[in-house]
């Protein structure tokens, strides 16, 4: 078994996921989302999710075999719901 397949990256998403954050999010995910590696994204601090970053997250979910977006804040879930992608991104546990 390849050692990389048992590794898990944990990444905290920034508070604002809009057009101005898209390039940084893409770089962050390219660094942490690798084939054969599990990745957990913590969306607990997200206060805004708009289309550009949502598209990047959808692509990351498609490309990764094991990417989970957990601790989804109410704002993250609202943005994903408004964009019609909440089921695709998964309904991670809501933040209390």
Topology of helices and strands:
Elements: E1 8-12, E2 16-17, H1 22-32, E3 38-42, E4 48-49, H2 51-63, E5 67-70, H3 74-82, H4 86-89
Helix pairs in contact: 1-2
Q: What series of H and E elements makes up the topology?
A: EEHEEHEHH
The total of helices stands at: 4
Please identify which CATH superfamily we are dealing with: STAS domain
What Rg is obtained from the alpha carbons, in whole angstroms? 13 Å
Backbone structural class? alpha/beta
How is this structure best described in words?
The protein is of the alpha/beta class and 96 residues long. The protein has one domain (7-89): Transcription Regulator spoIIAA. Helix content is 39%, strand content 19%. The chain is built from four helices and five strands. The protein has helices at 22-32, 51-63, 74-82, 86-89; strands spanning 8-12, 16-17, 38-42, 48-49, 67-70. The strands form two sheets. It has a three-stranded parallel sheet with strand order 1-3-5, with no helix packed on it. Strands 2-4 form a two-stranded parallel sheet. Helix 1 runs parallel beside helix 2 (51-63). The longest helix is centred in the middle third of the chain and has 13 residues, at 51-63. The model is unreliable at 1-5 (pLDDT under 50).
Highlighted features:
alpha/beta, 4 helices, 96 residues, three-stranded parallel beta sheet, Transcription Regulator spoIIAA
């Amino acid at each position: 078994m390849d050692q990389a397949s048992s590794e898990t990256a944990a990444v905290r998403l920034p508070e604002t996921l809009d057009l101005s954050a898209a390039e940084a999010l893409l770089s962050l995910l390219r660094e942490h989302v690798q084939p054969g590696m599990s990745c957990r994204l913590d969306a607990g601090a997200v206060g805004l999710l708009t289309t550009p970053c949502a598209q990047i997250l959808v692509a990351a979910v498609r490309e990764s075999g094991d990417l989970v977006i957990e601790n989804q804040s109410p704002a993250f879930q609202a943005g994903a719901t408004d964009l019609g992608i909440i089921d695709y991104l998964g309904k991670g546990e809501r933040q209390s």
